[in-house]
Specification:
Elements (H helix, E strand, L loop, with lengths): L5 E17 L2 H13 L7 E2 L7 E9 L3 H15 L2 E14 L9 H10 L5 E6 L3 E7 H14 L2
Antiparallel strand pairs: 1-3, 1-4, 2-3, 4-6, 5-6
Helix pairs in contact: 3-4
C-alpha cells in the first residue's frame, strides 16, 4: 500500500436493482428525483450496457432508509412493470488512493486479492482514485482482510 492508499468501509448498506427499466436518462432522473423527495441519500450507482429499450439500474442506500423507499419501489413496479430486487446488510469496502490514476495495476491487485476469497461481490463502482466493492455480510471479513494484506 502506498502511503496515500486507504481502505474505507461503510456498513448497513441496501442494494436496490431495477431490472427491465426503460433505458433512458429521463427514467433515471425521475427515479432519483423521487428518491430525493423522500430525503434518501444514494451512494453507489451502476448501470450495465443497455439491451434495446430496456436496461438495469442498481444503487445503494443506507439500511435505515429501506422502509422509506419500499412504497416508491412498489409504485415504480406498478407503473412500469420493472422487476425490483432489494437486499440489505451489505458492506461497502473502498480502496482509495489519489495516486491511483497514475498507478497501473491497482485494479489487478485489488481483484487478485479478493479472488482468493471467492466472495460474493454484489456491486462494483470505480473512479480514477477509488475502487468500491459492495460485499455481503458473510464475505465482509474475508474481503477486508485480503485487501489489507495485499495492499500493505
Amino acid at each position: 500500500m502506498t502511503p496515500t492508499t486507504e481502505i474505507r468501509t461503510v456498513s448497513d448498506i441496501t442494494l436496490v436493482t431495477l431490472q427491465g427499466s426503460p433505458s433512458s436518462t429521463r427514467f433515471m432522473a425521475d427515479v432519483f428525483d423521487r428518491i430525493a423527495e423522500k430525503q434518501i441519500n444514494i451512494d453507489m450507482i451502476s448501470m450495465p450496457p443497455n439491451h434495446g429499450a430496456n436496461a438495469g439500474l442498481s444503487f445503494t442506500i443506507s439500511d435505515e432508509d429501506l422502509i422509506g423507499i419500499l412504497e416508491l419501489l412498489n409504485k415504480l413496479r406498478a407503473e412500469t412493470g420493472i422487476r425490483v430486487s432489494v437486499s440489505s446488510v451489505h458492506h461497502k469496502i473502498s480502496v482509495y488512493d489519489p495516486q491511483m490514476k497514475n498507478c497501473p495495476g491497482m485494479a489487478a491487485r485489488v481483484f487478485s486479492a479478493i479472488a482468493v476469497t471467492d466472495a460474493d461481490i454484489r456491486l462494483i463502482t470505480t473512479s480514477e482514485v477509488e475502487i468500491s466493492l459492495l460485499v455481503t455480510e458473510a464475505d465482509y471479513d474475508a474481503v477486508l482482510a485480503a485487501l489489507e494484506e495485499a495492499l500493505k
